[in-house]
Amino acid sequence: MVKVTAISLSRISVRGVVQGVGFRPFVYQLAIRHNLHGWVCNTSEDVKIEAEGNKQDIEFFINDLREQAPPMSYIEEIEVTAGRPEDYAKFEIRPSVPEAGKYQLISPDIATCPDCLREIFSPSDRRYRYPFTNCTNCGPRFTIINDIPYDRPNTTMKSFQMCPECQKEYNNPFDRRFHAQPNACPVCGPQLELRIAQGVRVDTDDIIKKVGELLKNGKIIAIKGLGGFLLACDATSDKAVNLLRLRKNRPAKPLAIMVATIEEAERHCEVDEDEAKLLTSPGSPIVLMKWKTESNIFQSVAPGLKYLGVMLPYTPLHHLLLKEAGLPLVMTSGNLSEEPIARDNDEALKRLSGIADYFLMHNRDIYARYDDSVMIVEQGIPRFTRRARGYAPYPIRLPFKSRQILGCGAEEKNTFCLTRDNYAFVSQHIGDMENLETLEHYVNTITLYKKLFRIEPQIIACDMHPEYLPTKYAKELAEQEKIKLVSVQHHHAHIASCLADNGVKGPVIGVSFDGTGYGTDGNIWGGEFMVADFKKFDRPAYLEYLPLAGGAQAIRKPYRTAIGYLLALGIGLDKNLPLFKYIKKSELEIIKEQVAKGVNAPLTSSMGRLFDAVTALTGIRGIIEYEAQAAIDLEMLAYIAADENGSYPFALEQHDSTSVIRLHDLFTAIIKDVLNKTSEAVIAARFHNTVVHMILETCQDISAKTSIIKVALSGGVFQNRLLVRKTLPLLESAGFEVYTHRQVPCNDGGISLGQVVIANTNEV
Ligand code: ZN
Ligand code: ZN
Ligand code: FE
């Protein structure tokens, strides 16, 4: 007796990161398990499925599609429509159907999966110790792709012909490597090569072993990774680390380390549950965590800091090297400071020969330069300091459908952003736009994104700062291609970015604190309270304007900022202040003149500069060696006086509809503490408390006038973890709904996202 059941058919469209991640074989196996007939196929915009069978089986099948999806996939949407049964005889995987103008999401590069890891460490496996092992669940994706569809001929793997065994895996829907485009093995895939700095090949039958020895001997090795070269050396050796700093011309900026396992990470840092999850996630970012005092990592890896950036190996090559060397390794971008990461073999040999003793390279080419992502976990939420490997080019989902727009981003920590439909494709971290090499990397990466996601911008958005390189680029491009140009105020972009990041439209009270941004009045803004949405902003409060004596010079020399501020505020310069150890009499005279006459002394409301001035005033640091160093000093000191509750006075002065935060009383009080020899840690803590109170009181003031209870915190100053830790709960307990960044950095890396949402709203 054959039981007759009603047969139905469902047409299913799955969108998201569903190609090149083992999705079709997953669907195939799932269909077989649920007794369904029909087919699955990749198109240019989705994975299409026709599933025929028992109605309940189809329902279970759709449910499992979501719940059991492969690790590298990300489902945005599943659309189901009913169709007429076709009486299919079996379930099959059909060939891809390319369609012009359509696009799909592209997976970021993903850390080595547990299965591949097992293979490279099992002596009987044919991929034993093979550094380019990967499968549909892991390996390079974005960095090797040149065009869609994501098929081998469109990747840098096109020059490697698969051997019969690899081909068999590739063709078998039940294999973990079914349609794994970078599939390779020792017989047919990329190979390592070791060279000395002058380019001569090193003859050795075990390159990994040799490099392990070199690292143990304190050598600096340039290692080709996923998105470019990294520089590696023994992180426990003062000699190696000092040499690397000297050669790289990077005296103080913190370096990241790579350790073999999570247990090893726990030896050096306090790793909480969320941080462990992030470290071992497919994105495998650098995570900044509390550095243990008993760690044997050389202190000048991150001089003076309480946090250490740690990552785990994310390619088989890294796993093999870390195991061989048996040491924690410094791993830092292969570049001279401020240049983009070196990508090609010849380029690396040329640019890094003054830094590295040896070059560990290979013959798999890289299309996209891709730095390591840097993250923190604060208030239980993973947050980006730098967003690149493991995350870009995965888009941010917008709370509306956008036209096609290019947001050119800011000058420092640049990213750009391209939009279409509900997606904002924020690029990977490009870098500081200070040289031609970075500009070239920027332009090439824009071209790549436009091609991959089939975007032709109808609008270009840029910062208002006329001297920013990306602004100049935007103006030229808009003129050339006759495209509408929208200039966006920097701090408005920060707030809009935070809103888009959280999928909220506003209006909100925006607290936009950073170092520098061009204001609509031509002054340098950076301590701004706004009422903003995607369309416009008001500026109901800000830090009072004070002069930056010497302009850019003051940014490098915070003591100049401090003296200029005191002079402008009419506060007497007490010669007993430790500040004066930084300055010569002649320079003091110049500063006095600059402030008095307003020559080369641009006005600023910057919160970043306020941190600088306070740091210099306490005598902790007068000159900085990298951006935000003075503010970081102050944050680190404040942790020492964690229980300090005191704070300094300030005045919220009302002018018509605007409030100005006056700083005279704050500086007077700090000077009193400094002269009374109050500990620097206590002063630092009191200053942090003061900023927290400023935020709360000003938000309450604005809320009283506008009835808005939503607050967005954005701008580079909010990379200060102590500030976030203190501000967030205080605002929330005062009844505010607080939004902070999760998907893009709060620093200028998030500006491009803010620019596109503002441009889209203003050009309807
Ligand atoms: Zn794998
Ligand atoms: Zn092979
Ligand atoms: Fe900014």
Q: What does it look like?
A:
This protein is 33% helix and 22% strand. By secondary structure, the protein is of the alpha/beta class. Among the domains are: 7-93, Alpha-Beta Plaits (2-Layer Sandwich); 192-374, Alpha-Beta Complex (DHBP synthase), CATH 3.90.870.40; 391-506 and 748-761, Nucleotidyltransferase, domain 5. The strands form five sheets. Strands 6, 7, 8, 9, 10, 11, 12, 13, 14, 15 and 16 form an eleven-stranded mixed β-sheet that branches. It has a seven-stranded mixed β-sheet with strand order 27-28-24-23-22-29-30, with helices on both faces. Helix 21 (721-733) links the parallel strand 29 (710-714) and strand 30 (737-739). Helix 5 crosses helix 9 (316-325), helix 15 crosses helix 16 and helix 17 (607-618) packs across helix 18 (629-640). The longest helix has 27 residues, at 680-706. The termini are far apart. Bound molecules: zinc ion (2 copies) and fe (iii) ion. Residues 490, 494, 514, 517, 715-716, 748 line the site of fe (iii) ion.
Write the layout of secondary structure elements.
Layout: E1 7-17, H1 23-33, E2 37-42, E3 47-54, H2 55-67, E4 74-83, E5 91-93, H3 114-120, H4 164-171, E6 192-196, H5 207-216, E7 221-224, E8 229-234, H6 238-248, E9 256-258, H7 262-268, E10 269-270, H8 273-279, E11 286-291, E12 307-311, H9 316-325, E13 329-333, H10 345-352, E14 358-362, E15 374-378, E16 381-386, E17 396-402, E18 405-407, E19 417-426, H11 436-452, E20 459-463, H12 469-481, E21 484-488, H13 490-502, E22 508-518, E23 524-532, E24 537-543, E25 546-547, H14 552-556, H15 558-568, H16 585-597, E26 603-604, H17 607-618, H18 629-640, E27 651-655, E28 658-662, H19 664-675, H20 680-706, E29 710-714, H21 721-733, E30 737-739, H22 751-762
Parallel strand pairs: 2-5, 7-14, 9-12, 11-15, 18-20, 20-21, 22-29, 24-28, 29-30
Antiparallel strand pairs: 1-3, 1-4, 2-3, 6-14, 7-8, 8-13, 9-13, 10-11, 11-12, 15-16, 17-19, 18-19, 22-23, 23-24, 25-26, 27-28
Helix pairs in contact: 5-9, 13-22, 15-16, 15-17, 17-18, 18-20, 20-21
Bound molecules: zinc ion (2 copies) and fe (iii) ion.
One zinc ion (ZN) binds at residues 162-163, 165-166, 184-185, 187-189.
